[in-house]
UniProtKB/TrEMBL annotation:
Any one Pfam family match given in the protein's UniProt record, by short name: DUF498
Name listed for the protein in its UniProt record: Mth938-like domain-containing protein
InterPro entries per record: MTH938-like_sf, NDUFAF3/AAMDC
Top-rank lineage group of the source organism: Bacteria
Signal sequence, start to end: none
Amino acid sequence: MVFGFGDKGITIRDAHFPGRPGIDSYGNGGFRFADMSHRGSLLLLPSGVYGWEQTEDDPLTEASLSRAFAETGIEFLILGTGRQMRLVDPDLRAALKAKGIATDPMGTGAAIRTYNIMLAEQRPVAAALIAV
């Protein structure tokens, strides 16, 4: 979340970067991209990069990926599940498939490398990356 000053004091806004940058580095609980750093997990979608309130301990659900479900133009969603790969719940996989989105879970490091390659190839990819 980002803090800003509004008419009534401090307002809290969702972190958002309106572009499609690759991830330059990761670790220490965050990521570097587009000459910036972000602490916490990220959703990288066609509409931009968003802060994501997800940890390795939280289950991956339709609700936790609701922003990705609301997007158009995604054919492949890479799930960076943290330090280790964890399987995707079959109901979540079925919901993504019903929306026309293939998914592949992997550790966050592998997910970043895969996302950067697919992004460079201009493929219709998105990523959900849990910070490590």
